[in-house]
Amino acid sequence: MDISKTIAALKKRPDFTDNVGMILIHNGTVRNWSRKDHRRVTALETTVDEQLVEQLRQEYRRKPGIYEVLIETHSGRFQPGDDLLFIVVAGDLREHIKPVLSELLDRVKAEAISKREVTLD
Q1: Residue 74 and residue 114: Cα distance in Å, rounded?
Q2: Residues 6+ apart with CB under 8 A from 64
Q3: Average pLDDT of the chain?
Q4: Three-class secondary structure of residue 35 per DSSP
């Protein structure tokens, strides 16, 4: 996802200024260390349930004050530094947007993405 192009496209919508006062973005990347034990990660393999991601996107899109939710995920084998997950939440007020991004991110990662770290032993 090209964040600048994505934001520019949102801003071109005729009802954007009537509905958006904030856009929050999550850009998840592959770390070169394991969260579990800090071992060196050489690759990360992910599988995404795209249907569930879309269901979650639609669910959170209906929350009060939310104008748009965009999600881009990636399945496959990735190296440290590679992009894995983008979430864009646009809406009226930070009180509406911040909790949506936080909860949606946690749910997508817990429910729709499985991963396996390849580490140095």
Answers
A1: 11
A2: 96
A3: 96
A4: coil
Q: What angle do CA 9, 57, 75 make, to 5 degrees?
A: 90
Q: What are the pLDDT digits (tens) for 68-118?
A: 999 999 999 999 999 999 999 999 999 999 999 999 999 999 999 999 999
Contact 60, 69 (CB under 8 A): yes
Architecture per CATH, domain 3-119, reads as: Alpha-Beta Complex (3.90)
Taking a C-beta distance cutoff of 8 angstroms, is the pair 39, 120 a contact?
yes
CA separation (Å) from 113 to 11, 18, 44, 55, 94?
Answer: 30, 34, 12, 14, 27
pTM: 0.93
Quote the CA–CA distance of 73 and 50 in Å, as a whole number: 8
